[in-house]
């Protein structure tokens, strides 16, 4: 089954499409900047010979350098949202935020390092996509609210998120551009692994294997790119999640177990170090 519905399209090339699929294997077109978001199910992408398994709550981005195909083979319907944003709108946002010429322009439209997978929980664009996904069926049937203003909001998030990625990428000092791209992709995929599995029992050895690097090389690269160690990043993810659990009235003892701490005092100390208050006194 394959169902595609164009909800909005204009002469500049701005377009949003909703899809509902169980089985397909096809070439995928990327425009000046394109987003492929999985609302439910799993989509298997091959983007410039990089295999990216994209699950519910994740999305991939690419530009015209992207050669892509997707395979979907599911017993249940896989819902997705595809968004193309015109170069004109993104350029307007770039010119407003960066009065002087910026290398981010070339990064957005001409570099294949742009091609990455993200979790909606970790980005500005992800927040907008998540809201779209939550209203998937309502918007699919009643989409008059989508207009050009929507694409400016998308473009603002694209510029914010990709500027962050671009700054991280520039921190890799390598004589060859291709080497820098390769190392960045490996390390970023390991970061995605942490994002997906931070509640599991994962350690530096597992993270480094995910990145296909030695432990020392992985730790060094991760700190160079993201400004923190993998272990500190993992701890930060867990503590941030504990904050959400507290807001939902989950007990401190249950949270200790959920986020993988051995005992409540250890969790309480880590929480207080990060947030300045113990979990028992958090309001």
UniProtKB/TrEMBL annotation:
It comes from the Bacteria. The keyword DNA damage does not apply. Pfam families: HTH_18. GO terms for molecular function: DNA-binding transcription factor activity; sequence-specific DNA binding. Residues 188-283 form the HTH araC/xylS-type domain. Transmembrane segments: none annotated. InterPro entries: Homeodomain-like_sf, HTH_AraC, HTH_AraC-typ_CS, Tscrpt_reg_AraC-type_HTH. The keyword DNA-binding applies. Keywords: DNA-binding, Transcription, Transcription regulation. PANTHER family: ARAC-FAMILY TRANSCRIPTIONAL REGULATOR, HTH-TYPE TRANSCRIPTIONAL REGULATOR EXSA. This is AraC-like DNA-binding protein.
């Amino acid at each position: 089954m394959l169902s595609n519905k164009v909800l909005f399209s204009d002469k500049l090339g701005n377009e949003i499409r909703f899809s509902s699929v169980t089985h397909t294997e096809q070439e995928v077109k990327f425009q000046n900047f394109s987003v492929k978001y999985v609302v439910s199910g799993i989509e298997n992408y091959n983007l410039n010979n990089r295999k990216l398994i994209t699950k519910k709550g994740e999305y991939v981005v690419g530009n015209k350098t992207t050669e892509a195909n997707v395979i979907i083979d599911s017993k249940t319907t896989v819902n997705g949202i595809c968004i193309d944003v015109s170069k004109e709108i993104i350029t307007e946002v770039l010119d407003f935020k960066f009065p002087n010429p910026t290398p981010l322009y070339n990064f957005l439209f001409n570099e294949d390092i742009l091609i990455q997978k993200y979790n909606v929980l970790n980005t500005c664009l992800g927040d907008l996509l998540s809201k779209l996904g939550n209203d998937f069926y309502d918007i699919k049937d009643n989409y008059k609210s989508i207009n050009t203003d929507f694409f400016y909001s998308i473009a603002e998030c694209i510029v914010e998120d990709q500027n962050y990625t671009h700054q991280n990428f520039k921190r890799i000092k390598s004589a060859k551009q291709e080497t820098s791209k390769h190392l960045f992709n490996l390390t970023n995929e390991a970061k995605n692994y942490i994002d997906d599995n931070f509640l599991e029992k994962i350690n530096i050895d597992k993270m480094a294997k995910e990145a296909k690097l030695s432990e020392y090389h992985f730790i060094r690269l991760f700190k160079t790119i993201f400004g923190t160690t993998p272990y500190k990043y993992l701890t930060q993810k867990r503590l941030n999640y504990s904050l959400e659990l507290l807001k939902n009235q989950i007990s401190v003892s249950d949270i200790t177990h959920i986020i993988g701490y051995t005992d409540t005092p250890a969790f309480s100390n880590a929480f207080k170090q990060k947030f300045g208050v113990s979990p028992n006194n958090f309001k």
